[in-house]
Amino acid sequence: MATIINNMYAKVYEALDEHNVDKALEVIKMDEFVNRLDEEVNDLAIENLALLAPVASDLRKVIAAIKITTDLERIGDYAKNIASFVITDGYINEDIKDDVKIMIDNFLTMLDHAMDCYNKEDLKWAYEIPLEDENINAAFKSIVDKVKTDENVDHVIAMSSMLRNIERAGDHTKNVCEHIIYQLKGLHIEFN
Deepest of 50, 122, 167, 189, by most Cβ within 10 A of its Cβ? Predict the structure, then answer.
């Protein structure tokens, strides 16, 4: 799922940069795969719960997997929302294209770190990765401040809403770290 989502964000940036509706439509189609994978994980989890009756750490692993895939599915929805922006609203201001690219790159780095942390079951890193969201939030604020100078109020609102999707994707990546901590230690941590 994370690989598909990574590809969705790379493609959605290209769609934004080039105002390419075809690439935006590809992102929307890719979201269908993410949704199906989420359902498959949920079905596997139910099967494991019913047939294997897992206890303690195994049960936490199943629960964490369900929660992580739910957050990944939501992150995919945000990419789909950005693609919809390309289709309906069209363009991003030239003076913020590089900033948007940096924001997306920061998010993708954070997501890659979270998934690597999950695979390595690295508890210490699960506590550190959420700090990376500060870069995404700072970029969001900076870009919104630049966009506010646009005289087209409707475009400012649409741009701000589109950018909020990237910012929220970072928040859901923090949730992934919370679920990793739960899986490894049984602790309920809240970074948001």
Answer: 167
